[in-house]
Amino acid sequence: MKIKINIGNAAFGRYMAVMLTALLMTLSSCSLVYEDDLQPCYFVHLNYDYNLKNADATAAEVEEANIYLFDERGNLVWESGLLKGDELRASNYTVQLPVDPGTYHIIAWAGTSDQGSFELQRINMDYSLAKEELKQHLKLTRASDDNLYHDKKLDRLFHGADEKLVLEPGQFKVHNLRLVKDTNHVQVMLNNVDGSELDPDQFHFEIEADNSRLAHDNMPIPFARHKSHCFAKRFFTTDEEGDMGRLTRSLNKVQTKVTGVVAEHSISRIMENEDMRLRVYHGEDRDKIIDIPLRKYLAASKGDSYSHMSDQEYLDRQDEYHVVFFLDHNNKWDKTLCIYINNWRVVPDQEEDL
Questions:
Q1: Which of 48, 61, 277, 336 qualifies as a cystine partner to 179, CB 3.0-4.6 A?
Q2: Which residues partner with 84 through β-bridges?
């Protein structure tokens, strides 16, 4: 008697823990697969290692998930329901797929929901659901001037998909479903190189984009440009202990002490062809002092270490950005001191609109 095992192209050592767990699960949920009794047994394992460390951070980042299987016509044939709790965050967690052999399109939406930042769009709640209807919408607020915006820290949102999941008769399979993180933290820092203090209330920050809606394939759906206002803003000096002080001390070449303002932003997926703008205004009259194509500069920060990656891969793997500007005595951006993004020096376009 032989057990038929197929884990696709995954390295044996990397998935040994997953395989052992799934094999134990079969003792209660699946019959052993013998040559004369070809009963299939399929599992899926969520894996968030699509990051710059190439390490599976699912247990630390993902608190709940929904998994969907669609047939080759794009119709829903099975869904997991909401998965959450300590069991989901276990590194070897697998979910059984109780379906017949065939070819499927598998989709997962995962992350957190504490803030209620995203809303899963499902018109049909029964099995007539088509995969094109499975969308995520970022909840936006309409301002008095009719502009759309959000100003909260977003829940973490992940997407995983495989357009051709082949489940063969008599097969024991653990499918590794790789997740892509769609939410990003952008910290914008303004440093005053003459040492005078900056008033956080005198500065207004916004990131404008059209990425509030994501389709079943994780691609943005054109909807409307909206503004992401900072969810937190504060004053700091380079005398501070911790990362903030160390970062500004290492970058500043003019003063021994620098004062500044930090604004924290939370934004949705960044696309390599997205017209995403970062703007900073100063004073009661909202004098615009910075206006740059943010996506362009974030992609430029990958440096030599990640030069082998495409811009889109880098933007998907990186989820935290520290963007540093230096202001002159008039609270204008001093371009000669460049922009620093994640400790990389990026030379700005001297013709950039301000």
A1: 48
A2: 64
